[in-house]
# Entry
Amino acid sequence: MISYPIYRGMAAMLLSVFLFSINDALLKWLAGTYHPMQIIFCRSFFTFFPLLGPFLLKQQRIDFRAGNNGYHALRAFIAALSVPLYIYAYKALPLADAYAVSYVAPLFMAIFAIPLLGEKVSKQAWTVIIIGFFGILIMMRPGSAVLSLGGLSAFAAGVVYALAIVMSRKLSETESDFSITAWFMGVSFIMSSLFMPFYWETPPLSDWGLFAVLGVVSYGAVLTITQAFRLAPAAIVGPIDYLLVVFGAILGYYIWGDVPDMYVVIGSCVLIGSGLYLLYHESKNKTLAFAHVVEE
# Structure
């Protein structure tokens, strides 16, 4: 029998997937006008407001004396690098296509966990990883629209994100979720601000509103996905994350008229099936917890 906290975790994960789909649709929409670095800059600025609440109320703190500052900064920098890659992929591809390719991340999480966390990958898991890569090859076949800079950007984003998540897994042994998120937002803001003298375009009032919504929605997505994995096992809430492809296809169709082709559907099914098996396998062995890009 499923307990009440697990139901709450499933509900939180479903809400998180919905919020991430809104977040990504806004990123795609704004990428048609603004440089990715300006989008990151404005989103990071507006995300600071909900982050300030717990900090000012003394419910959360960042301990800069903890000795992990260098690792925090490196992990935040790597995570920040994935964001412009995601934004470019969303701009160049239909949302569902970009999601499908970037779901290579769970495969690379298992690979990166070997040197960074000292974990072992079984022969069975290696077989599944190889099958997952065949799914990528199906989607990125010669002549496919996915075999483009947009598709390569989505693939690279998934790889970089996987590295950041494995590093955050190591940090979470001693650091709070608030600290990990705050470091990421701070580094993203500083990095993107360096590009503002070159790429800044003053938005109209309506776009300022979109940037504000983007900041709040992205923070809400991070908050709910963290809550989901805190309330329920990864094997239960993790598969819900793949609904993002469905939400992305719906939003892409109704806003931009995008329809995934047959090869993207087949390849994404192979890749998602591989990711689901790895999720089950690693959760069963109490190692990695797979989730969507909480930094994205």
The mean pLDDT is 83. The two ends are 34 Å apart (CA to CA). Residues 139 and 168 are 29 Å apart (CA to CA).
